[in-house]
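INTERNAL TRANSFER SHEET
From: sequence group
To: structure group
Subject: ABC transporter ATP-binding protein

Please process the attached sequence and return the structure record in the designated field. Keep the field labels unchanged so the import script can parse them.
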Amino acid sequence: MPDITLTAVSKAYSAGGPLAVDNLDLTIPDGSFTCLLGPSGCGKTTTLRMIAGLEHPTQGSIRVGDRQLDSVERGIFVPPEKRGMGLVFQNYALWPHLSVRRNVEFGLTVRKTPSAERKRLVDAALTMMQILHVADRYPSQLSGGQQQRVSLARMLAVNPAVLLLDEPLSNLDATLRLEMRAELKRVHDETGHTIVFVTHDQLEAMTMATHVAVMRDGVLQQLAPPLDVYHRPANTFVAAFLGSPAMNLFECGPEAGVLGRQAWKYLSGGGLTGGDVHAAGVHTVGVRPEALRIVDAQESTEADWAFDATVKAVLPTGAAWTISLMVDDTELYLVTTKAIAAVSGDTVRCAAAASALHLFDSSGARNDLADVRPELAGTAHA
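Return from structure group:
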């Protein structure tokens, strides 16, 4: 199936009411695994339902390649059953009185697929989801993970060109969620289907998606591959939303707090020829917790941004340590895989490479260090 394109799509659930989706321009590439990511109420499920044909846009158009599915201006609407898409709901929506096999073959039965072909397709879908051995059981006899696999197998059996998944893993425990993430990634790799996946879980988006569309209040904030979204967030909202702990963000300038003034001095001077980056449009600086490191007196930090901080708490997680730090009245986090001897109340020296700093203007939009201070970016090391 060609790309799915939403053009200037808006959706209000009542005349004159607030927009659940606001002037959305979004292209979902053919064969991609695209995650619609954002907090509750950001418009991601509404967007999915409009693609499926379960909701009508208030304005705008939706098309697949050259085929128009929705156009408010031209009065075009293709009903859900004619869109060639499969929808998997959050609550599985299995028929409790039908066996696994009969649940999976339901769509094929509606399509009047011949019996032999129906059995072949059902067996193939059950095998792909690794649940052929429970084909004769009923949903009540299955675990949550198995029920989710049945729901996915039912969609795969009818071989839709697009799979639309509305937070399908949210009802599973942590272990099953991890297992199903790997399963969905495998299904995408094997089938090449276009998958549109709604989630508020950044880990799901980062681990499965080929493209992530971050939304806020019905507005698209950024569309990019997951690592690009993480390493080059388009604005402060995206920067703060992705990451656990979240990116450390603080105002930068001559009138900012202690940490912000230190960052401003480093970016504006740093021993190199440069101007006032605050005047150049840098209002906020961000640094990921894992990009900070604790250094000792022997370690050279000449090209890095370095500062002293007070340890507030040391939080071991097993595989890593999360350190809560205070610089005057600003709290920030550092994540390290190296055990540290510091305890609450200790003063430590912290450093971050220039390349690890994220710069944002007063509106929250990203500014690249190479554009603001090319000579400083040239000295940065990873």
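Handover comment: The radius of gyration is 25 Å. The chain has three domains: 4-84+160-241, 95-153, 248-379.
Transfer complete.
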